[in-house]
Amino acid sequence: MTTSDSAPAHIVSVAANPTHGFSKQPLPSVQLLAGLGVQDDTHAGHTVQHRSRVAADPTQPNLRQVHLIHAELLDELNAAGFGIAPGDLGENVLTRGVDLLALAVGTRLHVGAQAVIEVTGLRNPCSQIENFRPGLLAAVLGRDEAGNVIRKAGIMGVVAVGGEVRQGDSIRIKLPPLPHRALERV
């Protein structure tokens, strides 16, 4: 599930934002809290914290505690002239060397010395991404040969085991038992 044989899968940056806003502030490290998310991040909580989901049903479980994006997407977007830096797209964890979009539901990402993030699904990009940079929404959405939407704006997960996570930490992937379920938007 890595995308590069030359470098091990690792964390490029970590970020958080204590208030509802699109981008997150890159930090030296973040503390992941089991069952909650990223300490001092507005999306941490047992129940859903994203404003649109709170409006629909505030009692929903929070399957979006941690947002991960692959740095390869930022490379692609920057090559297209968007000028995206770590944290700009609202991710908590920016990875390199992992094909995040190809992971199965329930995959466990062991990050740092002890933290474990369990993958729950795909991030569904919304109009906020277009407001951040015009044209960006189209750049993070695609279509496959059958015309199905491909969401490239990262994945979401929950914190299964807490711990400190920082830039440069390794990522170890543990797939769930077969049969694997493809990621869908959460």
Task: Provide a short characterization of the protein structure.
With 186 residues, the protein is α+β, with helices and mostly antiparallel strands.
3D architecture notes:
- This protein has 4 helices and 13 strands.
- It is of the alpha+beta class and 186 residues long.
- The chain is 13% helix and 32% strand.
- The model has no long low-confidence stretch (mean pLDDT 94).
- The longest helix has 9 residues, at 71-79.
- The strands form 3 sheets. Strands 2-1-6-5-11-8-7-13 form an 8-stranded mixed β-sheet. It has a 3-stranded antiparallel β-sheet with strand order 4-3-12, with no helix packed on it.
- It has one domain: M1 Pyruvate Kinase, Domain 3 (Beta Barrel), CATH 2.40.33.
- The radius of gyration is 15 Å and the shape is globular.
